[in-house]
Design a protein that fits this description.
The protein is of the alpha+beta class. The chain folds into 4 domains: about 25-120, no CATH class; about 125 and about 230-290, no CATH class; about 130-225, Beta-Lactamase (2-Layer Sandwich), CATH 3.30.450; about 330-525, MetI-like (MetI-like fold), CATH 1.10.3720.10. It has helices at about 1-15, 15-35, 35-40, 70, 80-85, 90, 150-155, 160, 175-185, 250, 255-270, 315-350, 355-370, 370-385, 385-400, 400-415, 415-425, 430-435, 445-465, 475-485, 490-520, 520-525; strands at about 45-50, 50-55, 100, 125-130, 130-140, 145-150, 190-200, 200-205, 220-225, 235-240, 275-280, 285-290. The strands form 3 sheets. A 5-stranded antiparallel beta sheet has the order 6-5-9-8-7. Helix 12 (about 315-350) packs parallel to helix 16 (about 400-415) and helix 14 packs antiparallel against helix 15.
Length: about 525
């Protein structure tokens, strides 16, 4: 028998994808059993008051449980918040104190505080198009006597324009020159507007209505307005490191001096309110508003939280990891229990046959017709949601499929010579069933085990998504899917749990294919 199992194992190993899938999934599950060692908010080890302690062991042994009073001497016998203790004055005051945190210092049930995320607040910069107005006073010779706001249109200092001829900066057409001359000649003139083009921009020059006076005017005011063409508001988002997250194309169009001004405002917004200021982009004037955004959950992935945060500020990586452990543990226990029950019932039906088989088969069909989801909802409403209750409800329905296969195997094997010989020798019934027939009926058990495993994981995820699965706040992939449905913009809440579920199911299917091929040499070449 040992040599036969060895042959089956060698056949399985030849199917590389099945073998490596089994190896990878097994290692991943074993590592997840010790997830507290590399993903937890409890230190691995601490040096406190010249003593070396190992708080991480409190996950596994109650004797290593330290109270808050042990660290802060406040007479509180509750479990300590180690992150608060590490940042407390009592801990920092002793230079000999030290701490070693896990690689990922977050617990799946830990909600991040706003103060802890302050360094990750984004800064919003809004560039709102604004009208650009200027005025220029000229005398009869066209000399500029006063200028205000011309810098916002031509980026020229007003003081530089004063004393120079206006025609040095603008090309006036004949109609505009005539309108100016009529006013200096003290002639009645109607409101006049003229459009001129300069340096790729459009400027509207307006002369107000003029009535003749006793004396001709000594100077005339020209009103200039920059015409905005299809100017739209632009929103830019900067992270805590002053790195631009979006609108990079628009950012490239801003002059260096204005970029420096905006980045300085982004930096100062962390501590102060920033007053709006003006920048020019492609001869379009924008008023810049800078404000620091508040912490909003769920939060996208960042350098501290690789897979982001969920809607209550919990680390998604930690919840995906612990959710994997929960799903695998649930599936393994469920499959072992349900297969054991199915094997016993199917073996009894197949071995004895007759009236026992008929009655058991009819009862099985009646039980199978019961609506599982309704039973699950009823049990949850009466006893409350729990891991044990969910496991029990699933197990009492999940054995039916394997019992059919085991019944068929026992019906086939009970009439073979080795079974008749065992009966002739007077061996007990239980020994014939479990020590003689069952080892020869392992094909359904081994080949269906991987598929039953991934099916149980998928079913648990679906129930958690519907709200009838594990109690809140147990880490679960289905619960993350439910959050993603409530907030479709939080793509990370569905992407990473989905990838984890996809990989686990894919590996399980590969293992199942390899197991089937190991028992059926004809399939081996096809799978390879």
């Amino acid at each position: 028998m040992i040599s036969e199992y060895a042959i089956l194992w060698q056949r399985f190993k030849k199917i590389k994808r099945a073998y490596w899938s089994l190896l990878f999934l097994s290692i991943a599950y074993l590592l997840s059993l010790g997830a507290e060692i590399f993903c937890s908010n409890i230190p691995l080890t601490m040096r406190f008051d010249n003593q070396r302690i190992y708080p991480v062991l409190s996950h596994y042994f109650e004797s290593f449980y330290y109270t808050e009073d042990y660290f802060l001497h406040n007479n509180r016998q509750t479990r300590p918040n180690y992150k608060y203790i590490i940042n407390s004055q009592e801990f920092r005051s002793n230079p000999n104190n030290s701490v070693l945190m896990p690689l990922i210092p977050y617990d799946p049930l830990e909600s991040m505080s706003v103060d802890a995320l302050k360094d990750m607040q984004n800064v919003e910069v809004r560039l709102v198009p604004t009208s650009t107005n200027a005025s220029v006073d000229i005398n009869g010779a066209g000399i500029v006597k006063r200028s205000k706001g011309l810098q916002s249109i031509l980026s020229i200092d007003d003081s530089f324009v004063v004393g120079k001829k206006i025609t040095d900066f603008f090309d006036f057409n004949a109609d505009l020159k005539n309108a100016i001359d009529n006013r200096f000649k003290n002639k009645n003139s109607n409101l006049f507007s003229s459009v001129i083009h300069k340096q790729g921009i459009t400027i509207v020059i307006t002369l107000r209505k003029y009535r003749a006076h006793l004396n001709a005017p000594s100077k005339l005011r020209l009103k200039l307005k920059l015409k905005q063409v299809n100017a739209k508001e632009v929103k830019m988002l900067f992270n805590a490191n002053k790195e631009l997250i979006n609108a990079k194309g628009k950012w490239q169009q801003i002059e260096a001096k204005f970029k420096k001004q905006i980045l300085h405002a982004v930096e100062m917004s962390k501590t102060n309110n920033i007053n709006p200021f003006i920048v020019n982009i492609n001869h379009t004037r924008f008023r810049v508003y800078v404000r620091q955004l508040g912490i909003v959950f769920p939060m996208a992935p960042n350098k501290y939280h690789w897979l982001g945060l969920d809607d209550t500020g919990r680390d998604v990586f930690a919840r995906v990891l612990y959710g994997f452990r929960t799903s695998m543990t649930f599936a393994i226990i469920l499959v072992i229990f349900s297969m054991g029950l199915g094997v016993v019932i199917g073996a009894i039906q197949g071995y004895f046959g007759g009236i026992i088989d008929i009655v058991a088969q009819r009862l099985t069909e009646i039980w199978e017709s019961l609506p599982f989801l309704y039973v699950m909802i009823f049990m949850g409403a009466v006893y409350g949601q729990s891991f044990i209750l969910l496991l029990f409800c699933y197990a009492i329905f999940n054995w039916i499929g394997i019992s059919y296969y085991m019944r068929a195997e026992f019906l086939r094997l009970r009439s073979l010579p080795f079974v008749e010989s065992a009966k002739t020798l007077g061996l007990p019934t239980w020994r014939i069933i479990f020590l003689h027939i069952l080892p020869n009926a392992l094909v359904p058990i081994v080949t269906f085990f991987p598929f039953s495993l991934v099916s149980a994981i998928g079913s648990l995820t679906a129930l958690d998504y519907l709200g009838f699965g594990l109690p809140v706040p147990t880490p679960s992939w289905g619960e993350l899917f439910k959050q993603a449905q409530n907030d479709p913009s939080a793509w990370w809440l569905i992407l990473y749990p989905f990838l984890a579920l996809f990989v686990v199911i894919l590996l399980g299917v590969f293992i199942g294919e390899g197991a089937r091929a190991a028992f059926d040499p004809k399939r081996e070449s096809k799978v390879q």
